[in-house]
Amino acid sequence: MDERGFVAAQAFILDTKKYWSTAVVSSLKSEYRRRVRSTGHEPQSAADVHSLIGDTTLYRYYAWLERHLQRLKYSGRYGLVPYHRERADALLAPLEQAADDSRLELDPDLVLPKYFAAVDIHQHPGSVWGEPIAGLVYERGARSTTPMMGSRHRDLHQRFTDLVNEGGACKHLLDMGCGFGKSTKPFYESLPEAEIEAIDLATPCLKLACHDAVQAQAQNVRFRQMNAYETDYEAGSFDLVTSTMLLHELPPKEINRLFDEAHRVLAPGGRMVHLDFHLLPDAFAQFLHYGHGRRNNEPFMQPWAEIDVAELLAQKGFRNVSVEPFAEADGVDVTDNPSWRFPWTVIAAEKA
Amino acid sequence: MSNERGASEQTFFDDPALDRAFGVVMALATEVYVLRDRLRAMEGLLDKAGVVSTDALDAPPSDAATQASEADRQAFVAGLMEPLLGRQASKGASGEADYG
Question: Is residue B73 domain-resident?
């Protein structure tokens, strides 16, 4: 496919997604509220909401578009995957050049967890680890994960980094599930004195993260291939553990193990701060979010959202636990935004 | 239905035919936009080279030009809408197979 056709098709798909995020979502909300008023009682669960609007034609198109615009984006004729496959050799050359860098440490013996390999997450064929171009595909796809933010998407990571840094500059940071390094970059840029370790399961993503760090001439970061809930770090190695959009990718048992591991590698008084999708203000938000998880091939979104994380962290001996909504950009309403948005939440705690 | 990657098809309408047909509509809409984008790019390049004038292309057609295109437009509409009528162009067997 030619470059112009690819850019035009992806722009069309993104603008259709924006229409869905605004016009379709607000129509669906209006229809839902009209039905709530006519029944006279407020739904208490996602199942209640489904029984109210799940059979409407509007909801069916809402759901169809959510599922299929993502499919078109990744695997349609002008999709991210065919585009990158056609150009794989040229696109991968700079990544392979950076792969010998000391900032990158891959583990050829790593066995991917079954839950991780079982699903093509985000409807990304072959998922984020299955072929060398997967990191580039993921990076390109993530630029429009939150369509209403546009180019401000990078602000999201910077805002989170600023929030974490307000709690004091750390010296030893572990970024769990760093992907292609988008979450790590504002940390290694804002904390030149810190030693930053970033870990992930996916080789193609780690190679891209390393390439970007080499380009940025960052001397304070290392990307290592490792499972976040069973790392090889010594106990008490870090004064800060973070993750961004990782927890919802894990089944509850693995989330439990991840918090145990974070507790183990933190020094006493060390902080743990995660940015994820968690707090859902009402049954309607639950209904949309759980449906999004199914349609976007993210089967653990719902079980993660249903965990009482404050209670869990308190049980594990963390103190100063907080679970707070996070505004990803200026002007968003974290309780009832007019357009579609993720339920961004910051989960923070301290090791006693 | 499962595909080669072992995943089930997600459907949202009572008849899955509608899920798939709307997929065709969206694929066609994407192609239409790609063509539209390319046409505009070509017009821009031709305008720059002095071959055509974008202003002249954007101007409303004269009555004579509209009349001249009428037959083409009507044939286009007829070709588009004709399948809705259910007419059969050829004699043949019934749509129902008889396996008895």
Answer: yes
pLDDT mean across residues, chain A: 95
ipTM of the complex in this document: 0.83
**H/E segment holding residue A242:** strand A238-244
Q: Which of B12, B29, B41 sits opposite A63 (nearest CB)?
A: B12
Give the residue carrying structure tokens 């950076």.
A98
Whole-number Cα distances in Å, A217 to A58, A120, A188, A212: 50, 33, 10, 9
- Mean pLDDT within A115-134: 95
pTM: 0.91
A12–B29 C-beta distance less than 8 A? yes
Which of A4, A69, A76 is nearest residue B38 as measured by Cβ atoms?
A: A4
pLDDT tens for A92-104 read 999 998 888 899 9
Residue B71, domain extent: 16-83
Q: What percent of chain A has pLDDT over 70?
A: 97
Answer whether B33 sits within 8 Å of A68, measured CB to CB.
Answer: no
Burial category of B78 from C-beta neighbours within 10 Å (exposed 0-12, middle 13-18, buried 19 and up): exposed
Please state the length of chain B: 100
Residues of A in contact with B31 (CB under 8 A): 77
Q: What percent of chain A clears pLDDT 90, i.e. is strictly above it?
A: 90
* Residue contact A64–B7, C-beta within 8 A: no
In whole angstroms, what separates CA A193 from the centre of its chain?
27
The residue among A56, A58, A68 with the most chain B CBs within 10 A of its CB, best to mutate, is: A68
| Contact check, Cβ <8 Å, B19/A64 | yes
Give the domain A150-177+228-351 fold.
Rossmann fold (3.40.50)
How far is Cα A275 from Cα A140, in angstroms, rounded to an integer?
21
Higher pLDDT, B1 or A164: A164
- Does B9 fall in a domain? no
Output the pLDDT for position B39: 96
- Residue B92 lies inside a defined structural domain of this protein: no
For residue A264, report the phi and psi dihedrals to the nearest 5 degrees.
-65, -45
Q: How many domains does chain B have?
A: 1
What are the b/e assignments for A210-225, b being 16+ CB within 10 Å? bbbbbeeebebbbbbb
Residue A267: predicted pLDDT: 97
Contact A192/A169 with Cβ under 8 angstroms? no
pLDDT (tens digit per residue) in A271-289: 999 999 999 999 999 999 9
